[in-house]
UniProtKB/TrEMBL annotation:
Pfam families: HAD_2
Database matches in InterPro entries: HAD-like_hydrolase_sf (IPR050155), HAD-like_sf (IPR036412), HAD_2 (IPR041492), HAD_sf (IPR023214), PGP-like_dom2 (IPR023198)
SUPFAM superfamilies per the UniProt record, alphabetical: HAD-like
Gene Ontology MF term list: phosphoglycolate phosphatase activity
Span of the signal peptide: none
Transmembrane residue ranges: none
Full protein name: HAD hydrolase-like protein
Keyword Hydrolase: yes
Amino acid sequence: MNKNNYSRLVIFDIDGTLVHCGPTPRRVFKQALLEVFGTAGPIDGWVFDGKTDPQIVRELMTEAGVEHNRETVERALNIYVTGLQTELPKAPDRAVYPGVRALLEELVKQSVLLGLLTGNIKKGARAKLESLDLWEYFAFGAFADDSAVRKELADIAVQRAFELSGQKFTGKQIVIIGDTEHDTKCGRHLGVKAIGVGTGRSSAAELLEQGADFAFADFSDHQEVARTILL
């Protein structure tokens, strides 16, 4: 790709921001843990938000008092991905949030480079987005395979954008978009614009209180969201 070809770098979270996958991911996650460890620990009430997939496995097994290592964690996650690939395409309660597809189309028209920053491992992220025909919008991503630390994932995402495009993105050229304060913190870490969306656990007002520069209830008015991104 040609250098300086993009107007912005926009990096999206996945779950609660772009898509809702219903209970299927947690159910197949639980099945994978049961298969590998014989227990899923206190998974039913466990908060996944802002955490990486390997981190969640380790936390649950620690709570359950079960020994685990890198190999067993990876085995469980591989089983989880297989479950996602099998179950998600037929899950009736998965959905793209309002305005998301139209927003992505508009950003592509505006020469925006689109990426992902997520606690999902890459194969899990792909399974979720492919089940809703969104994967192809994103040229690259930073995933849980890359680091267990979300702020490090932010740095990795920006570096990958440079490697892909040959363009060095800084300051207002970069926008982080997500549904939790963890996404906002990534924006603060990079010193860039952070936009919140209230389609997850937090409302738009709460995301503003947590430090987002802008926040929307959802992306229904995709043109207004696009204008805010391009400010």
